[in-house]
Amino acid sequence: MEAEIWRDLQAPAPIRDPQVSAIQDASKWLKPPNGWVKCNFASSWVDPTSRCGGAWIVRDANGNAIFHSRRSLQCFPNPLEAELASLLWTLEDMANLRVDKVIFESSSIYIRSAFSYYPSPGMSPMIDIITQRFHGFKEWCTELVLEGSNKVASLIAVSVTRDHRLRSYVGSGGPSWLQSLILHESRNHHS
């Protein structure tokens, strides 16, 4: 039985062909389609000796914030590693919260370049782990958007590095200090 479990764990994850797209003209946040949620995530990196910030926010097809999180991350030598750590943490939280049918949205140029630069399995252990985590979701896709579409997650992440809000948490709804922006964005149409 242990041999079977080991063999299953070593087998490659089933290949799914998610829709990966770059939405170049989306300058504002758009609602996900009905039946889906959108998870915007971001990180904030200052320099190699400072703690980084990570954040995500999940919203439904009506634009309502379901929950959000902020996390103080360790120091990383560059913004790419901070972004990858934030993405991995986001994926793990979404799995733990049993979120599915999710659009992962980021405005990070580093994320896109990392997956373009390391397209083959085994070239980057962090990319391999992230890819495995993605395949744990039944239905998912990723979207790369302009910064204006990822404002809320970015502001939460920056609050860690700029305002030294180092306490990590998961909260329901959205942060109170961003409610007016979240309400404003919820009036935008579906993606």
From TrEMBL:
<dbReference type="GO" id="GO:0003676">
    <property type="term" value="F:nucleic acid binding"/>
</dbReference>
<feature type="domain" description="RNase H type-1">
    <location>
        <begin position="40"/>
        <end position="157"/>
    </location>
</feature>
<dbReference type="InterPro" id="IPR044730">
    <property type="entry name" value="RNase_H-like_dom_plant"/>
</dbReference>
<protein>
    <recommendedName>
        <fullName>RNase H type-1 domain-containing protein</fullName>
    </recommendedName>
</protein>
<dbReference type="InterPro" id="IPR002156">
    <property type="entry name" value="RNaseH_domain"/>
</dbReference>
<dbReference type="InterPro" id="IPR052929">
    <property type="entry name" value="RNase_H-like_EbsB-rel"/>
</dbReference>
<dbReference type="GO" id="GO:0004523">
    <property type="term" value="F:RNA-DNA hybrid ribonuclease activity"/>
</dbReference>
<dbReference type="Pfam" id="PF13456">
    <property type="entry name" value="RVT_3"/>
</dbReference>
